[in-house]
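#help-structures

NK: newbie question. if I give both the sequence and a SMILES, will the prediction place the ligand too? trying with pyridoxal-5'-phosphate
OV: yes, paste both and it writes out the complex. here, I ran yours:
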Amino acid sequence: MRDIQMVDLKQQYLRIKEEIDSAIHEVLDSSAFINGKPVRDFAQNLETYLGVRHVIPCANGTDALQIALMALGLEPGDEVITPSFTFIATTEVIALLQLKPVFVDVDPRTFCIDPESIKAAISKKTRAIVPVHLYGQAANMEAIMQIAAHHNLFVVEDNAQAIGSTYTFADGTQKKTGAIGTIGCTSFFPSKNLGCYGDGGALFTNDSLLAEKIKMIANHGQSIRYHHDLVGCNSRLDTLQAAVLNVKLKKLDEYIAARQKAAAYYSDAFSQTPEITPPYIAPYTNHVFHQYTIQLEGKNRDELNTYLASFNVPSMLYYPVPAHKQKMFEAFSGSSYDLPVTDWLTRRVISLPMHTELDEEQLEFITEKVKKFINP
Ligand SMILES: *Cc1c(COP(=O)(O)O)cnc(C)c1O
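OV: that's the protein plus ligand as structure tokens.
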């Protein structure tokens, strides 16, 4: 059996090696390392895939979130509602821009931001909501967009973990996650569902004026070279990374299907084990399984983590400390927030290996070990 990894990037590369190597060599031959043609091609290809008017590539997912908030023209002290149960980047950029992160709780089944908690947190200073499509499924965007419309708030979707996921509205219309709010953000970090071979990110929007502003901010605030109208930053996607992404975008749906197949194997194997709560999939979203995350009942997940490691089966705790309990947010009275679902999930969740290259032999080995831990 091949070694089991959380994410098997090597094996995935070997399957597409010829295409990747030739795309990379084309860039080397052209030597247009910055803003080369593959960057423009990729933006267009992703626009088509997502059904969104504008895709603006940038250097990483954290930059995408920061640039999105910069483009909205918020004032210091303005409040931005965000889940605490997320990767730190989502919340960090809010504080970095001197905005105030307002942490709210998540739905115990979907792990995504809870619309009722959003409503309860809205104040006169609220300007934006940043839902996170955690682990690969959409937050309840219909409810979130209704709240936003009612209170005139911007919505910045953190789509770093759910690219390719489809959201279905009550009237049957469908949109890709990231193409629903005011701006969508994503990351192409290698382990993400659409990952490059280094750092990368992008913003999506249907608003042409915002798209222009985003492009300017990501490029030192200029639209005419050496004329700087806004304070911006320097955030670009390398041509080499765009070339890799053009190859991998074509495979994204296939990759999602492989993840869903592995997830189905897991959930089926655990169906007779009441101590395990497998991922719940909300009716309005499909799940692209960036992570396969279970909850344990009556068993210690840290012990499972150690037990699996003793058989060289990796597992991860996403995330052991929620944002509001991080030291960096002491100045924002993080610890004064009462987020019972977030705190509860933080102690219960554990993520099993999930990637496109898992085979049945590996899945059988992993699920047998998990079940053995529960029923020794
Ligand atoms: C990965 C990730 C990011 C940040 O992306 P980087 O490219 O690493 O900067 C932001 N939010 C979430 C939810 C993520 O998973």
